[in-house]
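Kindly review these tokens for lecture notes.

. . .
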Amino acid sequence: MSGQRSAVSVRRPPKYAVECPIGVPSGGLRRLGNTVSANAVPGTTARRSSFTANTSRGFTLIELVAVLVLIAITISIVTLSFSRNFASAKIHAASRDLVAALRYTRGQAIVKGKEATFDLDLAQNSYQAPGRGPVQLPKTMHLNLYTAEQEQTSETSGRIRFFPDGASTGGHISVLMDRMEWRINVDWLTGAVTREELRR
């Protein structure tokens, strides 16, 4: 019939129809808004997490042992170094004090115009300047004396004599500790007192 329009039915595709990709099960797709994501194959994530956890746990134990070993080595080195430095400082101070006592004895001989003696007792590990009390060294140190024969008062004791003009009978005194040695030299002609470290 002219003038009449026929109704035409138009089929439209579903708004969110999605074709399943190859290799991914249909149940593995999930729609999030207008995007589609594939879920992992069941069991894969759990196995991967377990493997990662075991690997991490193993590496952590190895690293912990390595760190502990390094700490132990570092502590040993630091302790040894500190011990050596401490011992060196002690013998250095002891030899310095001994030099000061010898120079004091020489000064007393010059000032008072009469002989003065610096006495050592090797058995007691001590020395004494005139007018002063005996000074005893720590048990970790010991003294050696080289002096004129007439100044040896016994097998374990002796002295160095200073004269009013500053001269002396000469000799040397050694302060020893472990492998360290400081030698104090007394010149017989001038009475000068010097100190030197000897390598043993």
Observations:
- The chain is about 35% helix and 30% strand.
- The longest strand covers residues 171-177.
- The longest helix spans residues 44-112.
